Amino acid sequence: MAVKEGGVVVPRLNMVIGAFTRASLPIFFTRDWHPPNHMSFMGQGGTWPPHCVKETPGAEFHPKLRVPQGAVVVSKGTEADREAYSGFQGTDLEKRIKATKAREVFLGGLATDYCVKETALDALDAGLKVKVLEDCIRGVNLRENDSGLALREVVARGAELVTSSDAVRLVARVREFHSKPRRPRLR
Ligand SMILES: [Zn+2]
What is the DSSP string of 129-177? Predict the structure, then answer.
């Protein structure tokens, strides 16, 4: 299922993924991984054309997306009778993030008005700080301003909007912090 201009987020996400990789920070990929009779498909009375059917090309990551070796891939929407817009829904994503001691997540991908929004809200509910990468997301916009409304809602709930360049700068600072030799304080 195509999201209009969805491909434009890939190089920007790759930049952020690169920065996280260099800083040895954990990266999680979530994906729809539906059975062929998933309830969200129009043939089953759902909203969407069939998409992301597990083990088919439609469920693969974008060929240009940089998925580092050993990255954690979390599949969602794997049960025929359950929808999962959020990467946290019916998965062990929260447990896996918390196992890394991360307190903050940077979030990008598709689509703003469904999976990005619900994943951001669940991350906030899990007690994480959330930064949505505003230039690394694109919406479906079944109604004209769905993406705008989604972003307004996640910000009202406490998420922050940042750009991919902001993220790279912030992550570089984490690197410096970790690589600085500890010196005794003079005062
Ligand atoms: Zn889906």
Answer: EEEEEEEEEE---SSTTHHHHHHHHHHHTT-EEE-HHHHHHHHHHHHHH
